[in-house]
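I am going through a labmate's work and have reached the protein record below. What it holds is a sequence and that sequence's fold in token form. Please read both lines and tell me whether the tokens look consistent with the sequence. Do not assume that whoever made the record got everything right. Thanks in advance; the entry in question is below.
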Amino acid sequence: MPVSVLRPVVDHAVVNVADRLDTARSLFSRLGFQLTERGHHSLGSSNHLAIFGENYLELLGYEQGKEKQRADLWQAPPGLTGLVWKTDSADIAFQHLERHDLDGEPPASFYRPVTLPDGSLSEAHFRTVRLRASRIPNGRSFFCQHLTPEAVWQPEWQVHPNGVQNISEFVIVAQDPALSAQVYSQLFGVEKVLACQDGAFALHAGAVTVRFACVDYVRHRFGSLPADYDGSARMAALGFKASDLTKVKAALLKGDIAFSDRDGAIVVNAGENVNLALRFA
């Protein structure tokens, strides 16, 4: 039987907003993202999504009285805490994790009700399998199998006032970037993680480049780090591919969001956001 090889493609990025779902929804709307209506998972968490061409952004939190459901999620620091990979089979992904000594818990199934743009009711169903928690500090990394992708990737939801088309960069800051990248070398193969001249390491994953970088690199490219950064490896920043930077600027000005021009891109400081620096290019 041939050994399966998992292809790295980022499915979505998760931002932990805990009990600040209303604040996060308002903020990301002001940033120029079109967000879906609030969804409620069968496991107890709630979310808003910004859907793009190949991937999406998830603002994940909980409503009042539900903080004890999925309590392990809210122990992570606020901000970027989830790096999620596409898979056609959670079972195959789990077998791969077992072979490479990266497995956590077996695949889990859950769903959330969805109101589609035409007003009809549907459900989004998922199966997920997580990498061993001890290998991913300050967050989670897992594979997501979409059983009903049509309940997520609706064309009407993929159009954003700021012109964003995809997440293009997912940044993990670390004192030792090579060490932080090691788990993904083990997961996808050492040839997939490339050393860059600037000292960072890059994993090309579909529309997204996952980058492992030192503090100086992240501060130069994104202007800031999470306010509570303590030196441990941390998911810290996101980059977006936009169709037109004038749309980004117009959306930020309309939303009264401070920004700066940096190396031909537009950067929003982590202090203006939910502990997360953003870069539009």
